[in-house]
TrEMBL record:
Pfam families xrefs: ABATE (PF07336), zf-CGNR (PF11706)
Organism: Ktedonosporobacter rubrisoli
Signal sequence residues: none
Name listed for the protein in its UniProt record: Zinc finger CGNR domain-containing protein
SUPFAM superfamilies to which the protein is assigned, alphabetical: Jann2411-like (SSF160904)
Domain of life: Bacteria
Occurrences of domain Zinc finger CGNR (ranges): 160-200
Length: 205
């Protein structure tokens, strides 16, 4: 593989100044490919980048439990992850709106979906499974791209929603029975919205 990027365009990065706590990762959006998309915060306002360094991507892979241990990440792999992330986000928006993805985004997703993924290995006692690959980050990107392909090509994509907090704009899957979920995460955006509503009510009293 000569290059791990598929587009001549520079990746979209979001480097707004935020305290370290904003680099906390969330995994409540329903699918691994959407977890990756959520590594940009506040897309609807002053967007900021949670994957600011290779170490951030390494930590994200570990916290997402996509690999057994946080892997080494290069700058090129970080750039590739950002490119794939934005392709997935835009393709998800298009799928939600009933439109075809942009050709460049489809090419990026398909490129990574075609790469070797993580290899499952049975333990000596035959009770557990580990996953590894000669190039772990590239294998993780393959896994995420395949997850996106499977999602967009399935009826489950009809459950894609955008977080009701305008500043957030994260995409998530509403798998609730009444299909009335509004927030990407109740612990973050849901609580923020409740606090704002409470303050507004207090101001009126």
């Amino acid at each position: 593989m000569k290059s791990i990027t598929t587009s001549s365009e520079s990746p979209v990065t979001f480097l707004g100044a935020r305290p370290a706590r904003e680099k906390t990762f969330g995994f409540a959006t329903g699918r691994p490919c959407l977890w990756l998309a959520a590594t940009v915060g506040d897309r609807g306002a002053q967007a900021f980048e949670r994957l600011q360094s290779p170490a951030d991507l390494s930590r994200w892979c570990g916290e997402a439990k996509l690999v057994e241990a946080a892997p080494y990440v290069t700058e090129a792999e970080l750039e590739a992850a950002r490119v794939l992330r934005e392709a997935i986000y835009r393709a998800a928006l298009a799928r939600r709106e009933g439109s075809a993805p942009m050709p460049a985004d489809r090419e990026t997703i398909n490129f990574w979906a075609a790469q070797p993924a993580l290899i499952p290995q049975l333990s000596e006692d035959g009770r557990t499974c580990s996953r590894s690959a000669p190039q772990p980050i590239q294998a993780v990107l393959a896994l995420l791209a395949r997850d996106a392909v499977e999602l967009f090509a399935s009826p489950e994509a009809e459950k894609l929603k955008i977080c009701a907090r305008p500043a957030c704009a994260s995409l998530f899957l509403d798998t609730s029975h009444p299909q009335q979920r509004r927030w990407c995460s109740m612990n973050t955006c849901g609580n923020k919205a409740k606090k704002l509503a409470y303050r507004g009510q207090r101001a009126k009293d």
